[in-house]
User: Fold this.
Amino acid sequence: MKKTVKVLQVLDYVNHNSGVSAVVMNYFSHMDRDKVQCDFLLFEKEENEISREIVRCGGRIYTSGRPAGKSILNYRKRVDEFFAQHVGEYEVVHIHIPNAAFAVLRSAKKYGVPVRILHSHNARGADGTVKKVRNFLLNKWGIRYANRYFACSEAAGVYLYGKRKMEKHQVWVINNAIDLKRYAFREESREQIRRQCGIGPEEMLLGNVGRFVEQKNQIRLLEIFAAAEKKLDVKLILLGDGELREDLRNKAEQLGIIEKVIFAGVVDDVENYLSAMDVFLLPSLYEGLPVVCVEAQAAGLPCLVSANVTREIRLTDQVYFIENAETAQWCEALEELAHNMGTRQSGLKLDAYDIEKQAAVLEENYLRYGKSTDTDVDL
Assistant:
């Protein structure tokens, strides 16, 4: 009987409001659990459909608390205790939070986990200067204990590991693959969501999906929409939640657009909302390779994307980068799209982003890693 490789996935949380969570769960859901079994170590556990799916699939969920402020040393102690209690249980630790790797991968190495994967999902460290400096130091510390390097894009790889490791092909760029069939455009979903949200047949629906945080730049999106709605028959739908929720509502009130902005919250059927949209907007200040933009392209949506986002996200000719941050350029692009709306079709058919194919590749590598020892892993 073939041995099952046990992998510990480490991330902050699992829910429908996190792109990293979506990527991890896409891969988890499409691997053969007779070959690869994953457990999860999270900062904190939420009781939701995703956590229930993990348990249904035989995975276990553990929590460590957050490594924030004065609790960083306590975090390291809790992580150390976890690995001490699970000696010999995991062949692979796969961490998706670089600034927590200093504790997780250190303890994993200390207690004999042979393969320690660090995965970069972003092309910049944080929004504030203090957090940037903190993350820079913690990331460098964490890299020392990794012996496999993953990134979601070239840009994310260069950010965390540097150009040298990228040029020497020491980093595996693992695509943010999705279920292409799930995100394919569906006319019936479009009609249902638009009817549910009160969107008229002639109205152009602009959309954004993401956490309400500074990185995603939705405050700027509201300013762009306020200018666009003066010229176009448009509405805006925001899917997500986060610390800036009230700021966004207040901004919409201030701009006089609150009646035209739909705050839909966190949903578990993003694909249906993407079918309902006419244009997807991503004004982010930085990204690794945003999975939601892959999903939008799979749904055949034109995407207006900030120049801050890596060019690697352009998987179809429906992605347009706004080089100038001025509101006028965003509005001009929207006007041009409004005049050239054609018949909507699903737009992404790349094997490199097909989760069924890419999950099989990761599964194969996990199985190979499961035969490794700490001394025979190439750096």
Observations:
- The longest strand covers residues 5-11.
- The first helix runs from residue 19 to 29.
- Residues 375-379 have pLDDT under 50 and may be disordered.
